Amino acid sequence: MHNKPQLFHPQAEAALANPELRANFRGAMDYLRDKRKSAFADADEEKAIRDRAEAIRQRCLSKLPELLEQLEANCTANGIRVHWAENAEQANALFADIIRSHGGTLAVKGKSMVSEEIELNHQMEKEGIRCLESDMGEYIVQLGNETPSHIIMPAIHKNKRQVADLFAEHVPGFQHTLDVDTLIQTGRNVLREKFREAHIGVSGVNFAVAETGTLCLVENEGNGRMCTTVPEVHIAITGIEKVVEFLADVPPLFSALTRSATGQTITTYFNMISGPRKDDELDGPREVHLVLLDNGRSQAFVDEEMRKTLQCIRCGACMNHCPVYTRIGGHAYGTVYPGPIGKIISPHLMGLEATKDLPTASSLCGACGEVCPVRIPIPELLQRLRHEAKQDPRPGVPPLRGQKAAASRTEALIWRSFGLVTSRPALYRMLTWCATRLRGLMPKKLGPWTRCRTAPQPAARTLRELMAERNK
């Protein structure tokens, strides 16, 4: 199942009509919101964590070009081979070349949304290379030929019965059960064998430290550590915005990420990778590669306001608190990054032609901005993108790909007419005078507007008559 952002409205309608999906998300979102609330029980502590995380991300982004060069130099000095990819096609070509050079046909993958962004699994399949997801949620959606519906919990849209049905269909010898521990163990048993077979391990990167050339990976299941230590070759991929300046920048961001994502003070595993296996070490890969992906991020970087989009640390808190996402789920958006963060980053990755409807898929309630651990002003950026989708770029600001994709001549004419009327008091008074006296001609049925409303009826008595009676 691969939805498209161009079909957001029918996809959202289909999601709203699915009671099982609605129930799955309702329970999951309530749970995650409660967990985050417990993790930030002290309001002063929450403010301090968010203040520091925001400051770190803004400082690092302000130095992004220099930090990327420093990261490359230090990674190279550590023995990590650094590759640059301008787009998804280049990134996939790099993966294919590296894997083919080692004669690999199987890669085990830790969780990586950037690999989803470039459709790595599907592209490698065309090259005769199988990419097996080792994160339990990713493994489940891969079995169902689906895409992740959440950036932290990919299979959050499924309940245990649906997972059991998938295992019964795809896992030989599985005895149908609704016991969650048994389901998890079933998946682990399958994946354990694949770790032994694969020569290639793939992972994402949560933070790339320029100061030390270190790749940091946050996880709870241990599969990320297996992917980065057991196979002979480790290929990490990350967006260029994930670089941080100092190793000391990582703990505050780590704290903000885990509390906001899953309500944990600390995750089960925190991996720091600074190079391939040394001669005196017993485990680890013989080669480590780092693919740095742009794919539209430079477009956001050069725009000072839209650059704030790149502060994201992929915690998913904005999704968990969004009244739209919690009702329609992630697949309705048709993008790799759904929910509020997806609505502001996808236009840079995919262009406004494909994503023009997403910035309007929001109530602008502000909940996403209130819970963001790095304080991305998502509602303000959504309003900016709504402008970009309909009008010419602002002076001095580079246009987005697909600028004015949602422009409408009819709408533009209506707004020009409205501006003309409201800027001329005499014309405004005349038209409102006419409107009040001709309201009796208004049709009794106005389509969707009157399904739960009735057209205004002429007042029995005018205000002047009522005031005259009162003064008698």
Automatic annotation (TrEMBL):
The keyword Coiled coil does not apply. One of its GO terms (molecular function) is metal ion binding. This is Iron-sulfur cluster-binding protein. It comes from the Bacteria. InterPro entries: 4Fe4S_Fe-S-bd, 4Fe4S_Fe_S_CS, FTHF_cligase-like_sf, Helical_ferredxn, LUD_dom, LutB/LldF, LutB_C, NagB/RpiA_transferase-like. The keyword Iron applies. The lineage of its organism: Bacteria, Pseudomonadati, Pseudomonadota, Gammaproteobacteria, Aeromonadales. Keywords: 4Fe-4S, Electron transport, Iron, Iron-sulfur, Metal-binding, Repeat, Transport. Residues 298-331 form the 4Fe-4S ferredoxin-type domain. GO terms for biological process: lactate metabolic process.
